[in-house]
Design goal:
Blueprint lengths: L1 H27 L1 H4 L18 E2 L6 E2 L10 H37 L1 H15 L3 H12 L3 H27 L3 H8 L4 H9 L4 H24 L11 H8 L8 H29 L1
Length: about 280
């Protein structure tokens, strides 16, 4: 009976962690799982439907080919590797920056809190997509610049959420006791405040992960991401938009993959939130 209750309460975690494990495995090790070279072109195999045989060489194209005869499945896996890598690094930088700002603002309050939160409010007043487009136009495209852009657009959420929790944590008895003992503020924030915000930070990181994937795909769709020859999920949707009536798989399959990955990450985030509240 207890096992059933444990399973019932953790089914979101079991499913999401299992699916995320598979997603990360097949994308991180894309060279092992990809059946063909994602850059290899074949004019004899242009727009082959899914589950069709190649003309130029032996083998089956599981998800079809694009307008240049490149294997869609291989490009999906390599594109996922790049998209997930950019999202993870961006969330890492945004999480560290935003959490540090949120802890400092919430702990000290006063003018420090006012200045930092006004900066956050200013950025929140600008739509993330618009801010990302402007920054890419200024900094230029490229992998490093896209990571910088995504990181800058993501720190505000971490800062505001962490700050709200710190406002209540700093009134707790263990923090007051540390202050009374003369413990430096930096040590209090590091040893007492930060550990009690881990679940909040981790939950926000998982939510921001799905947001970063979608934003990166949007930039790639607009041609503002990495080089157009590099396979990305957004770029694949853009490549297939002109063939939607004759080759539905070019845009539909990458779009479904993005939706599936974001849904899985959100399911994991929901599980983390329930664990933190429980």
């Amino acid at each position: 009976m207890k096992k059933k209750l444990v399973l019932r309460g953790n089914w979101k975690g079991i499913i999401s962690i299992g699916l995320l494990g598979i997603i990360f495995a097949v994308t991180i090790f894309a060279p092992w799982f990809a059946p063909f070279d994602p850059y290899q072109q074949s004019l004899q195999d242009i727009l082959i439907p899914p589950l069709s045989h190649y003309t130029s060489h032996p083998g089956i194209s599981v998800l079809g080919t694009d307008q240049l005869g490149r294997d869609v499945l291989s490009r999906l896996l390599y594109g996922g590797q790049l998209s997930l890598w950019m999202s993870i690094v961006s969330v890492l930088f945004a999480g560290i920056t935003g959490s540090a700002i949120g802890i400092i603002a919430g702990y000290f309050g006063g003018k420090v809190d006012a200045v930092m939160m006004r900066l956050a409010d200013i950025q929140l007043s600008i739509p993330s997509m618009l801010l990302a487009i402007v920054m890419v136009a200024v900094l230029g495209s490229g992998l490093t610049n896209i990571v910088i852009v995504l990181s800058i657009t993501g720190w505000v959420t971490f800062a505001r959420v962490v700050r709200s929790q710190v406002l209540s944590l700093k009134e707790m008895e263990f923090v007051e006791a540390a202050k009374a003992m003369g413990v430096p503020s930096l040590i209090i924030m590091w040893r007492h405040i930060l550990p009690n915000t881990w679940f909040t930070i981790l939950t926000q990181a998982s939510l921001q992960m799905s947001r970063m994937i979608l934003l990166a795909a949007s930039l790639s769709f607009l041609g503002l991401g990495v080089d157009v020859s590099t396979p990305t999920w957004g770029g694949m949707i853009n490549d297939g938009k002109n063939y939607i009536s004759s080759a539905w798989w070019l845009s539909t399959i990458p779009g479904l993959v993005i939706a599936f990955v974001i849904l899985t990450i959100n399911l994991f985030s929901d599980w983390l939130r329930e664990k933190s509240e429980g």
